[in-house]
Amino acid sequence: MGKLTLTEFDQLLRGALHNLNRKKDVVNKLNVFPVPDGDTGTNMYLTLKTAVEEVDKKMPQNLKDFGKALCEGALIGGRGNSGVILSQILKGFFESLDALETVDTIRFATALMAASKVAYQAVIKPVEGTILTVVKSVATKAVVISTYEKDFIKFFKDLLDESRISLAKTIDLLPVLKEAGVVDAGGQGFVFLIEGGLNVLKGEKIVEEVQKTFEEEIEQIDKTYSIGGKLEYRYDTVILLSGVDIDTGKVNEGLTEFGDSIVVAKAQELTKVHIHSNNPHKVLEYLVQIGNIKDAKIEDMQAEVDEFLKEKQ
Q1: Topology of domain 6-218, per CATH?
Q2: Is 67's pLDDT higher than 80?
Q3: pLDDT above 70 coverage of the chain, percent
Q4: Which side of the chain, N or C, has fewer Cβ within a 10 Å radius?
Q5: 292-300 and 235-242: which strand pairing?
Q6: Which CATH number describes the domain made up of 235-312?
């Protein structure tokens, strides 16, 4: 297969979603950064699921409208740090394709580079050893491979290999991962997305043996790992704003005094804000001056962490 059309992209998306659904618990068990609350896999899955539902609702007839629907759904459904970052990966990728109706490996690689750039820009303090690193490594490799590999099955096989190599290195890039003896959860989720896409290209179903292999790897996690006390910031706060002229740079700058793990993502008239904070009410008070609040979710991460670590004992 030398080119992808709307039909193939739709199939790739659903294959990626299906694979992540099957393996989201594996990702959850790896979750120790930025907060060990065991929900990265679930957040990534639900984000992509909402994106697929938006595509199904709008039934786009061309690749540009497909990308718009997908990105809008992902932004609306973006959950947690990983989900909002995933929405920006999708945004960067599909905005790069613009009005193309067919995509070869070269344009696919270019879109991956754009996806990486947009994702990094959305995070106020990018950290290496996370999904950002894995996406960047895969995109960089894709650019090289695309110069000589035109078949998408072979192309995806090489990307999957690169994603696994990059994922394995995350444990040495982030001290908290090394302490826990795990690779990055978000990076693992991204690997599963590529794997799901490859399965579809090959016309295969998800192989059960692969799931068992990863489960065996999970058993090696240091179950004595803990965060060593209370979280610095207790509440996971995700807010959806509407407004045409929202300045994401201004939003980023204003949020720094309220917490960390800040991600600001935008798609058309919608802006999604993610932050870990001890004062979510102050975050809301600030953001209501920026745009119209369409939705807000506040979760007690300390309770989630306590439960997650209890289950690992």
Answers
A1: 1.25.40
A2: yes
A3: 87
A4: C
A5: antiparallel
A6: 3.30.70.980
